[in-house]
Design brief:
Layout (H helix, E strand, L loop, with lengths): L7 H13 L4 H15 L4 E7 L4 E8 L10 E3 L3 H9 L3 E3 L21 E9 L2 E10 L7 H19 L19 E4 L1 E4 L2 E8 L14 H24 L8 H13 L2 H12 L4 H17 L4 H22 L14 E5 L4 H5 L6 E6 L7 H9 L2 E4 L4 H4 L5 E5 L4 E4 L3 H23 L14 E6 L6 H6 L4 E5 L1 H6 L6 H15 L4 E4 L26 H7 L1 H14 L4 E6 L5 H20 L7 E8 L8 H4 L5 E4 L1 H9 L17 H17 L2 E4 L7 H9 L4 E4 L1 H12 L3 H12 L9 H11 L4
Parallel strand pairs: 9-10, 10-11, 11-12, 15-16, 15-22, 16-17, 17-18, 18-19, 19-20, 20-21
Antiparallel strand pairs: 1-2, 1-6, 2-3, 4-5, 5-6, 7-14, 8-12, 9-13, 13-14
InterPro entries: GAF, GAF-like_dom_sf, PEP-util_enz_mobile_dom, PEP-utilizing_PTS_enzyme, PEP_util_C, Phosphohistidine_dom_sf, PTS_EI-like, PTS_EIN
Family: Belongs to the PEP-utilizing enzyme family.
Subcellular location: Cytoplasm
């Protein structure tokens, strides 16, 4: 490469010296553009910074009219500079003025320059600005020069991202790198959290990007890549990793990328421009991410996440930082930001320090969401590329009510939310005041309100809310967060703790509902085309009776001298229930034979969540002691809409006539046979839906702890007879098939019901 100052390595060393000088941000930029222009034998070097309003502002120049600095502003869809920013790709032209995107700005005096080289200033794949060099001659820039300018842009990205330039900007024209973000996602867990970002998989911050010893940096890179490859091979050879399944497919993809010559070659080339091994990894991954963010193919977007993770693993190898060590210094007001995570990973954090959870993915009925609700953590999901848009320590507000997230919020927004938190605290005080008030509707009908639970952290909510009992205890959550299969004594201890916390209140234990999307980390996953419809819950338990028997034995022993209520999930035929009940009888016989204490009474029920059971109710109800409706699965099976798939999860309304008619059929049949039925899915946890359920005949609802107060407050104000009379004609044969949601909202508003 031609260079008055000796090439890119010399330039990077000079940049490092400028970065260390105690000068203003403007002086630093002015010196940098002079250095770059001299090094590249260019008559012009300019830095454009992307602003919060989406425009590009000229922040520094060598060669153009200096009076144009901070005055020249262009749209991102304007000119060659705008094209570089929009496409996040370099543009090299020997005759820029002949290009159709060329835009002449007279105040700059650039009409005398013909050749143009512009590269995006990128960080984590996001465009922060554009770095440009120009020459009068019709010059063709070499690949080496383009690479060198991209490397230099990486240094500028850190200056922009640091916020150093913000003080130079007019209000409303600040650099976009630190701009406030107002994002709209999917509300997952109620609540409001104010705090600071903690990345679940933190990006390694590369502090040294300029190399002193290129051969040494190449060796470091090669050694780290080889260590990474070996670690992936070891994981794949581990007997605990399934031979097929999603986990193995991810590792196979990692191995493919780790051996990709193109990926390794680009990082080696970046080192040769003067970067450290860490700087090269970050530079290549940021460029790759910028391209892939602009792709629409979902498969390629998924591969972006694989490459992000692989690059992060490589950076950890190079920096010697162990996974998870950042969690030791969790701030008091942490907002966890992640692409996605398991319930066990969330529980690894210190709950007392977490104020919110923000996800790129997530679903309203996922198990992570259920755990977040149990912990009382505000959560929002479906925020694309949120991990790439925030930095650790950024101020953030999570609104789990509206699904909004504010990153780096302005002072007025933060003040408004502080007031909103105070208002919510007053509402919670009002709900707490209802603790000992019986849940009786305005016209005198008693509604039993129970809690959904699954973890020890849920147990204090029983006393706090004054709940009638636990209508659903999800026993699988203990298995999902454990690193190994819980022994019988461990299960026994948990179940006793639950019964002790409930006291005289009833507790309904659901036997293991694993399989499908509930994969235990220590069990071999089974690859299935449709796991939600596959080998899971009671199907797995009946095929592996030892697993089911050990759990039932622990439950029976835990309930010695007390009442035990059991329900079996995912039952699709009465014969399955008969077989499961037979196992309970066998275990009772075993305990009697060996002199163990027995429960005072054992009640065995069924989860109604498979539509096939709706056509067997006359055979089912004489066999069961009680029933519970799992609305999450029942609704998804009725509509054939995967509740974990964001594209279809909200496509069909559970307040539509098909779902409500199915639910009413169950309530009517239960009343006919004199059997109690509880609705324990997430449907009951929303006041409007709880209104509909009460109107069609449900007198027992089981809700999440956070929803207990709002649902109870609504029921206390409800005229149930009026609600039933209002809903009945809407569900009659021949009625309009549209959702009842808007009609119910109008009814609630007219009746003054708190929703």
């Amino acid at each position: 490469m031609r260079g008055a100052l000796g090439g890119p390595r010399v330039l990077l060393r000079r940049l490092r010296e400028v970065m260390a000088e105690p000068v203003s941000a403007q002086d630093r930029l002015d010196k940098i553009v002079v250095l770059i222009a001299a090094n590249m034998v260019a008559e012009v070097c300019s830095v454009y910074v992307l602003r919060v309003d989406g425009t590009l502002e000229l922040y520094a120049t060598e060669g153009l009219n200096r009076t144009a600095v901070h005055l020249t502003v262009m749209r991102i869809d304007e000119g060659l500079v705008g094209t570089v920013a929009r496409e996040a790709e370099p543009i090299s032209l020997s005759n820029a003025q002949a290009h159709p995107a060329f835009s002449y700005r007279p105040e700059t005096g650039e009409e005398i320059y013909h050749s143009f080289l512009g590269v995006p200033i990128l960080r984590a794949g996001n465009t922060l600005g554009v770095l440009v060099v120009q020459n009068r001659a019709h010059r063709t820039y070499t690949e080496e020069e383009i690479e060198a300018l991209q490397t230099t842009a990486m240094v500028l990205a850190e200056i922009i991202a640091s916020g150093e330039l913000t003080a130079m900007a007019l209000p409303g024209a600040e650099p976009a790198a630190r701009r406030p973000l107002h994002l709209k996602g999917l509300a997952l867990s109620d609540g409001i959290g104010l705090g600071h970002v903690v990345l679940h998989e933190p990006r390694i911050e590369v502090t040294k990007v300029i190399a002193d010893d290129l051969p040494g940096e190449l060796r470091r890179l090669d050694e780290a890549v080889e260590t990474l490859r070996t670690s992936i091979d070891i994981m794949l050879e581990d007997e605990g990793v399934a031979r097929v399944g999603e986990h193995r497919e991810i590792l196979e993809a990692y191995r493919m990328f780790a051996h990709d010559r193109g990926w390794i070659g680009r990082m080696r080339e970046a080192v040769m421009t003067g970067l450290t091994a860490e700087g090269a990894v970050e530079r290549v991954q940021s460029d790759t991410r910028a391209r892939m963010l602009r792709m629409t193919d979902p498969y390629l977007r998924e591969r972006m996440h694989d490459l992000d993770d692989l690059a992060n693993r490589l950076l950890r190898q190079l920096t010697g930082r162990a996974t998870g060590e950042e969690r030791a210094g969790l701030p008091d007001n942490a907002i966890i930001v992640a692409r996605n995570m398991s319930p066990a990973a969330l529980l690894d954090y210190d709950r007392s320090r977490i104020r919110g959870l923000v996800l790129e993915e997530g679903a309203a009925t996922s198990h992570l969401t259920i755990v977040a609700r149990a912990l009382g953590i505000a959560a929002v999901g479906h925020l694309e590329n949120i991990v790439g848009q925030v930095d650790a320590g950024d101020a953030v507000i999570v609104d789990g009510v509206s699904g909004e997230v504010h990153v780096r919020p302005p002072a007025d927004v933060e003040a408004a939310y502080v007031e909103k938190v105070r208002f919510r605290a007053k509402r919670l005080e009002q709900y707490a005041a209802l603790r000992d008030v019986p849940t009786v509707t305005k016209d005198g009908t008693e509604i039993e309100l129970h809690l959904n639970a699954g973890l020890l952290v849920d147990l204090p909510h029983i006393a706090e809310t004054g709940a009638t009992g636990i209508g659903l205890f999800r026993t699988e959550l203990q298995f999902m967060i454990a690193s190994a299969f819980p022994r019988t004594n461990e299960q026994l201890k948990l179940y006793r703790s639950v019964l002790d916390a409930a006291g005289e209140r009833p507790v309904v234990f659901r036997t293991l509902d694993i399989g499908g999307d509930k994969v235990l980390p220590y069990m071999r996953a089974i690859e299935e085309e449709n796991p939600a419809l596959g080998w899971r819950a009671i199907r797995l338990g009946l095929d592996r009776p030892g697993l089911l028997r050990s759990q039932i034995r622990a439950l029976l022993r835990a309930a010695t001298g007390r009442e035990l209520r059991l329900i079996f999930p995912m039952v699709s035929a009465v014969e399955e229930f008969d077989r499961a009940r037979h196992i309970v009888e066998r275990e009772l016989t075993h305990l009697r034979r060996h002199g163990h204490g027995l429960p005072e009474r054992v009640l065995v029920g069924v989860m109604l969540e498979v539509p096939a059971l709706l056509f067997q109710l006359d055979q089912l109800f004489p066999r069961v002691d009680f029933a519970s409706v799992g609305s999450n699965d029942l609704v998804q099976f009725l509509y054939a809409a995967d509740r974990g798939n964001p594209r279809v999860a909200d496509r069909f309304d559970p307040l539509g006539p098909p779902a409500l008619r199915a639910l009413k059929l169950v309530a009517d049949k239960a009343a006919e046979y004199g059997k109690q039925v509880t609705l324990c899915g997430e449907l009951a946890s929303r006041p409007l839906e709880a209104l509909a359920l009460a109107a069609i005949g449900y007198r027992k609802l089981s809700v999440s702890p956070a929803s207990y107060g709002p649902v109870k407050a609504m029921l206390l104000e409800l005229d149930l007879a009026a609600a039933a009379a209002f809903v009945a004609p809407l569900l009659a044969d021949g009625a309009d098939a549209g959702s009842l949601r808007q009609s119910l909202k109008a009814f609630a508003e007219k009746a003054g019901l708190p929703l």
